[in-house]
Design a protein that fits this description.
disordered N terminus, alpha/beta, Glutathione S-transferase Yfyf (Class Pi), Chain A, domain 2, two-stranded antiparallel ribbon, 2 domains, 9 helices, 7 strands, disordered C terminus, 62% helix, Rossmann fold
Length: 381
């Protein structure tokens, strides 16, 4: 069913309707850091997008857009952000770079089903939102002007016809009322619009992509392991031959050079995986919560979804055990020479990213087992 959010038209002569509230989420950065630092550049970029693209587009429709660092009311800033994300009429999300905080806030917003417009810089979009229409831009003046125009068109069409509800909210509504009689006003205009099973398939595709990331990580670790084994044999040969320290140092430097690229690749894949998991975690938790709200006899195909989560958790634990052991071994060789500090740092960073990102999978499994077995539900929030 294709569902859109609509706003009733008040035909009474009571004056114009109040302006929509609009909250902007994005990688804000830090304007107080040193000029040229990544944090400062991120801040300057987001300010430029906010002031040159988002503000004027919203102003055309009487909206006063606000972002987190411009909230002036006293109080807990985290609570204020959550309230804006969940309650404002519109959210415009800049998903450039897949910033974890942005993706978390975006996941919360998606579950509400309220209007959301996605924008992002060319070449820096997280793959997880690839199926979602995203207004793309680069930092040239012409591209920023085009992005502003696209936002204006999206606002005009959305305020006139309603904004399409995205996957998490459609899953929610499908599960809450599996036997409900359709509202004629919500009959799909498009017969090819995705249904409930399609939405589960979308989440499963994300899980499959996550598994592909883990396989890529395993192959990279295997490659580093093979290089390490060959280098160890060479070092043992030098030691047995009482080779001078200079020869051994040359071998260590060669080993460092040979693992530097795969170590960086490992950290990059781990970063992609971590960004993917933020969005996926939000969607999976929403789906689990909604399955719990549905009577067991009406859950239908959700049993397969729960089974896949439980199977995934076992595979993830095995993978993480290997990754942790690999990380510990890498830490052990880091003190051998300054040549090894760079690649070891990349490996350690990757291991930490993976451990943090995968922590949620055990929670998915616990909840899935509870729902599949009919036992008392657990708290997964």
């Amino acid at each position: 069913m294709s569902i859109t959010t609509t706003h009733a038209v008040d035909e009474s002569p009571q004056g114009p309707a109040p302006a929509w509230t609009c909250f902007v989420i994005g990688p804000i950065g830090d304007g107080h850091t040193q000029a040229g630092s990544p944090e400062r550049e991120g801040f300057e970029r987001h300010v430029r997008i906010f002031e040159k693209v988002i503000l004027p587009a919203c102003a055309k429709f009487g909206m006063d857009a606000i972002r987190a660092d411009r909230i002036t009311h006293a109080g807990d800033i985290h609570e204020q952000i959550c309230r804006h994300v969940l309650q404002d009429d519109l959210v415009i999300a800049d998903v450039t770079g897949g910033n974890p905080n942005v993706m978390y806030e975006l996941g919360l917003r998606h579950v509400t089903g309220k209007p959301t417009i996605h924008i992002g810089e060319h070449g820096q979009l997280p793959f997880d939102i690839a199926p979602i229409r995203t207004i793309r831009y680069d930092l040239t003046l012409s591209s920023l002007a085009d992005a502003r125009t696209e936002i204006e068109h999206a606002l005009e069409a959305g305020m006139r016809d309603g904004f399409a509800i995205l996957t998490p909210a459609r899953v929610l509504r499908g599960l809450q009322a599996p036997g409900a009689v359709p509202d004629p006003s919500e009959e799909p205009e498009d017969e090819n619009a995705p249904g409930l099973l399609d939405e589960f398939a979308a989440i499963e595709e994300g899980l499959e992509s996550m598994t592909a990331d883990l396989e890529a990580i395993a192959k990279t670790i295997e490659s580093i392991g093979e290089i390490t084994e060959r280098s160890s044999q060479k070092m043992e040969g030098l030691s047995d031959a009482n080779a001078p320290i200079s020869a051994r140092m040359a071998a260590v430097a060669q080993y460092s050079d040979s693992i530097t690229t795969p170590a960086k690749d490992l950290d990059e894949v781990a970063q992609t995986f971590a960004g993917r998991m933020v969005t996926l975690d939000s969607g999976v938790r929403a789906a689990l919560a909604l399955i719990e709200m549905t009577p067991p006899e009406q859950r239908g195909e959700s049993s397969q979804f729960l089974s896949e989560l439980m199977s995934l958790a076992q595979s993830a634990r095995e993978s993480m055990s290997e990754v942790s052991g690999f990380g510990a071994a890498a830490e052990g060789i880091g003190g051998m020479s300054r040549y090894l500090r760079g690649p070891v740092r990349s490996i350690s960073s990757a291991v930490k990213r993976l451990a943090s990102a995968m922590a949620c999978i055990d929670e998915w499994e616990t909840t899935a087992r509870s729902l599949a077995g009919g036992s008392a539900p657990v708290n997964y929030n």
